[in-house]
C-alpha cells in the first residue's frame, strides 16, 4: 500500500527518514512529502497558504492508482483531513500523529510568532513541557539545524471542507503528549478542539507516550504504530 507522510511545521520530507525506512522494509510504497515553501531556508514562502499544501497532497494522492494511507504529523493532520475531504474515495485511512482533524473555519495555529511573513522555529520556551518530552539537547540541536520557516498563511488560513463523506474515512489517532484516556474525556466533555474527531464514524486511539515530535524521539515505535494501523486498513 502507498503511505504518504505529511510533515508538521518546520519540517521537510527527510524528517520522516527514520520512520519511512521500517515502513518501506515492511513492503509498503512510502512517499514522504516536502510541502511548498519548505524546500529550503531560502525558498519563497510569501504567497503560500494552507490550500497550497492541501493541493500538493491531493496531487500525490491522485498520482496513486489505489487508495492511500495518509499520515499527518501535527499541522500535517489538518492537511490530511482536508485531503480526505477532497478525495474521500481515494484515502483508505488517515493516521494522525499527535494531531487530529481540523474542522471547517478553524486555523492550525494563528498564535505562532510571525517574523517577516514567515514563522521560524520559535524558542523552546514557546512550547508546553509536554511538547518537549524526550526531546533532549542533542535532538533539539538536530531539530533546529533542519528546521525551515513555515509559511505564515499555512498557520492562519481557515480550513475549507465540503464533503461529509470525510467522516467515513477510517482514522487512527496516535496520542503522544496526552493519553488516549485524556482525549476520550475531552471528547465526552464536548471540547470544541476535538469536535471534528468526534464526528468520525470509524476511528481508533493509540498511545505512544513521548513529546510532540515522535519521529525524532521514538521513530521505531512510531513506525510500528503506523504499520499496525495500516494492517487494520
Task: Explain this structure.
Residues 3-225 form the AB hydrolase-1 domain. InterPro entries: AB_hydrolase_1, AB_hydrolase_fold, Sec-Metab_Biosynth_Hydrolase. This is Pimeloyl-ACP methyl ester carboxylesterase. It holds the Pfam family Abhydrolase_6. With 233 residues, this protein is of the alpha/beta class. It has a single domain, classed as Alpha/Beta hydrolase fold, catalytic domain (Rossmann fold). 34% of the residues lie in helices and 15% in strands. It contains 9 helices and 8 strands. It has helices at residues 17-25, 50-62, 75-86, 137-146, 152-156, 180-188, 195-198, 214-217, 219-231; strands at 2-6, 29-32, 68-73, 91-97, 118-119, 150-151, 171-175, 203-207. A 6-stranded parallel sheet has the order 2-1-3-4-7-8, sandwiched between helices. It has a two-stranded antiparallel sheet with strand order 5-6. α3 (75-86) links the parallel β3 and β4. The longest helix is centred in the first third of the chain and has 13 residues, at 50-62. The model has no long low-confidence stretch (mean pLDDT 97).
